[in-house]
Predict the structure.
Amino acid sequence: MGKYIIEGGYSLSGEIKVQGSKNAVLPLLAATVLNEGKTYFHNCPKILDVYNMLNILTAIGCVIKWESDVLIIDSSVIKTHVIPEKYVQMMRSSIILLGSVLGRLKNVKISFPGGCSIGTRPIDLHLKALKQMNVDIKDRHGFIECSTNEIIGNKVSLDYPSVGATENIMLTAVLSEGITTINNAAKEPEIVELQDFLCKMGAKIEGAGTDTIVIKGVNKLNSVEYRIMPDRIVAGTYMCAVAAAGGEVLFKDVCKDHLNATITKINEMGCSVKEYEDSILIKAPIRLKSIDLIRTQPYPGFPTDMQAQLMSCLVSADGTSIIAETIFESRYKHVTELVKMGADIIIDGRIAVLKGVPRLNGAEVFAEDLRGGAALVLAGLGAEGKTIVNNASHILRGYENLDKDLSLLGAKIKYSSD
């Protein structure tokens, strides 16, 4: 499972380039199934979730290769509509292959997905939408089987602006007959990225970034070359690292518009933030300020994927902060580990009350999910003494070079596979 070993108390300085986006690239990888040609990706992060998705694509017939840092996917031949269960259980995002394989083959069989245990995250919204598009769905022995003689566009209204459901509907509708309209669609930047990618392949989609997306079905898509956008959650994580450890860092190759909610909270903690065209400079104060209330919300609100990292900063802030986790009911698994390090946190349902302590103490802790694991690394950077973060494989799912990046900025951190 691996571990990170951190010697706390070293401030960060310098500049760093942010990797390509995990949450953007996974639906794009699924979408390559639709074009029956070749796709050339630039800035694709080399992380476990990407490798798992590539394993699935290889298993169903795609040919994958890396040429230097360019990822090439040839989806000319798809041999099967059955998605291998062992990979699906490793990664929840594999569910987006439901839409792309169904769109290509009009038939798909996939198990219910695994991944981080941060909440129930049911896929009923996905299936309800597909039923409205002339898709027959059977749930048998833990597998979902979808089939149709023709995907027919329809008006779909989501009960909740689910990112995964929005992506699956888009992927299913691209090669459909007629027009599909998604009402109450998710507005995340990753949805816009999926629209841009599909349109570059020849799809006809508009409205991503608003609550209404319209997809006009086309008969065929073409090969494409595409650069993945920067990862807004990795950028936010590293900004919180500066806040937790202290120092001053310039973040390059970022989209500041995607980071507004996170930057607002970084600023409220007392950090100095200077924004440039495609870079952001963060300077930490001597001690962070508390924040009265942080409430996680769908985009453009404060992202649930940044809640744990912000908590690792606020546990050492001056005063009391309150966090309300409204998205996932089991996203406080890192709290027990932070308490081991001396944090003063009280959990009441989905509310966390943080009473700032002067400094955390290093300890041996265990990551139980991706973002919670990253938060424990940040806590270790600001703690006194040595921190060991076990179960690092969770973190490797989304961060390409966490230890190397932080080391370049002056942190004392190393990864061990033992």
Notes: The chain has two domains: 3-19+230-416, 22-218.
